[in-house]
């Protein structure tokens, strides 16, 4: 069964939320468009009690971002977020919840954090997710959500360890990047673990992708997609960043494609 797992698409992880992830809100319309392409949609929900030990506020004198030891592991202290039964813990208001067939709650034990939708961070207790998937014979998961460098990363790695085929929808994820390379490193770790990377375009517009791979270029408002040397499309939401533009142009296979990028850039408002 064609299965999509939505990771933590909750108000507190969106701009304006308690643990806002930059551009987190941009994942929601993509999730809504992707859900109808799957037979089964599952969502994880960070669901902490107010006394959760990952909250800086529960450690007098400690600040957000500091490291403590929790359950014999290093633990980053976060702002209080996704507290059970608060609006911050609810799914994004714009998210179409009608297609979500199952919700896996995580982070409910105050004494240990849970980035992965499968296990707590010490892999001491499992959530209901693996049993739910196995009972339905599901072997392949598509993943999207927030945050790339925490809950998406740990869920993807655990899914691989459990033997699932995992495909990450790259442009439908956003990361925290506490350190500037965290998201890039997360992608490296996932690739090394055998996670396949795709884009929403590949799922929503497979014919368009085919023409891309034949060397033609697809242009949408504010979005340009070109095949990289590894024939994995790279997406740019804006061509305003000259460094990224140069890197894209250097990956274009043909002069026609390079000209298309340059032509397109002139149309993008700065
Ligand atoms: Zn949390």
H/E order of the elements? EHEEEEHEHEHEHHEEEHH
Small-molecule components bound? zinc ion
Binned strand content: 15-25%
Helix/strand-derived category reads alpha/beta
Which regions are unreliable across 5 or more consecutive residues at pLDDT < 50?
219-224, 227-241, 263-270
Regarding CATH, which class of the largest domain? Alpha Beta
End-to-end separation in angstroms reads 43 Å
Overall geometry comes to globular
Number of domains: 2
Could you please say which CATH topology of the largest domain applies here?
Rossmann fold
Roughly how many Å is the radius of gyration? Answer: 19 Å
Helix content: 25-40%
Q: Based on the structure given, which CATH architecture of the largest domain is correct?
A: 3-Layer(aba) Sandwich
What does the model show?
The chain has helices at 27-34, 129-135, 148-161, 182-192, 200-204, 206-213, 242-251, 255-267, and strands at residues 3-7, 40-46, 67-70, 73-76, 100-106, 140-146, 165-174, 196-198, 218-220, 223-227, 233-236. By secondary structure, the protein is of the alpha/beta class. The protein folds into two domains: 3-203, Isochorismatase-like (Rossmann fold), CATH 3.40.50.850; 207-267, no CATH class. The strands form three sheets. The protein has a six-stranded parallel beta sheet with strand order 5-2-1-6-7-8. Strands 9-10-11 form a three-stranded antiparallel beta sheet. A two-stranded antiparallel sheet has the order 3-4. Helix 3 (148-161) packs parallel to helix 4 and helix 7 packs antiparallel against helix 8 (255-267). The protein starts with a strand and ends with a helix. Zinc ion binds at residues 46, 48, 81-82, 107.
